[in-house]
Amino acid sequence: MSHGPAVLQAIVSAWEASGAAERAAVALGLTYSLLAVWRSRWCWIAGGVSSALFIYLALRSRLPMQAALQVYYVVISAYGWWHWSQEEQTQGTPRVSTWGLGSHLLALAGICALSALSGYWLTGQTSAAWPLLDSATTWASLLATWLTARVKLENWLYWIAIDSVLAFLFGAQGLYLAALLSVVYLGVSTVGFVRWLRTYRTPAAAS
Questions:
Q1: Mean pLDDT on 55-81
Q2: Rounded-to-integer distance, Cα 184 and Cα 207, Å
Q3: Which of 52, 55, 158, 176 might form a disulfide with 144, Cβ 3.0–4.6 angstroms?
Q4: For 110-129, what is each residue's pLDDT tens digit?
């Protein structure tokens, strides 16, 4: 028997139950992703405001760690705005570049180590359903956001992996609206990678 109608109803109900601040935060988060695909510095304004709203929502829901994570996003948004503005002054649009293999290996090793530590702590101190995956997506998101601010092509590959896992995690926990949003982000990230890769391979397209 198909669960499609039940899932759709759950998504509609979750949207109807959300408040104005949550809807605005989600809408601005999507705006951020779409503008980032087009390498518009205004993505960081949308992303910063979205994260600021999520700080309020997280504190109201007594989720201090999530609030702290959103504070990081606000800081990175300010840095991203500054860095992309500097790039636009000299390049017209931010120039896409890549990260070295060694940097990726070091970063992935760091993510694995931090995920193991935080996952171990969550397992022992909380009732987290997916402590290791939850930890891995959190640490990887910090890296991916920084790579986006630095206009690194590989940021989209990290987001594709992150959004795939988050779609599974949210769906497994019955958070269908969040799962749907992760699927949308997955599609945006795929388009973003293709566009940035084309720009990277064609230098003239970056000007």
A1: 85
A2: 29
A3: 158
A4: 999 999 999 899 888 878 78
CA–CA distance from 2 to each of 5, 174, 191 (Å)?
Answer: 8, 16, 30
Centre a 10 Å sphere on the Cβ of residue 185 and count the other Cβ atoms it contains.
21
- For residues 71 and 63, what is the distance between their CA atoms, to the nearest angstrom? 13
DSSP secondary structure string for all residues of the chain:
---HHHHHHHHHHHHHHS-HHHHHHHHHHHHHHHHHHTT-TTHHHHHHHHHHHHHHHHHHTT-HHHHHHHHHHHHHHHHHHHHHHHHHHHHSSPPPB---HHHHHHHHHHHHHHHHHHHHHHHHHS--SSHHHHHHHHHHHHHHHHHHHTTBTTHHHHHHHHHHHHHHHHHHTT-HHHHHHHHHHHHHHHHHHHHHHHHHH-GGGG-
* Residue at a domain's end among 58, 92, 126: 92
Output the pTM of the full model.
Answer: 0.86
Q: What is the pLDDT of residue 179?
A: 82
**100, two tokens:** 């070295």
Query: Is residue 170 over pLDDT 90?
Result: no
User: What pLDDT does 207 receive?
Assistant: 47
Going by pLDDT thresholds of 50, 70 and 90, the confidence category of residue 186 is very high
Verify that 201 and 184 share a domain, yes or no.
yes
Q: What single letter denotes the amino acid at residue 133?
A: L
Q: Are residues 62 and 29 in the same domain?
A: yes
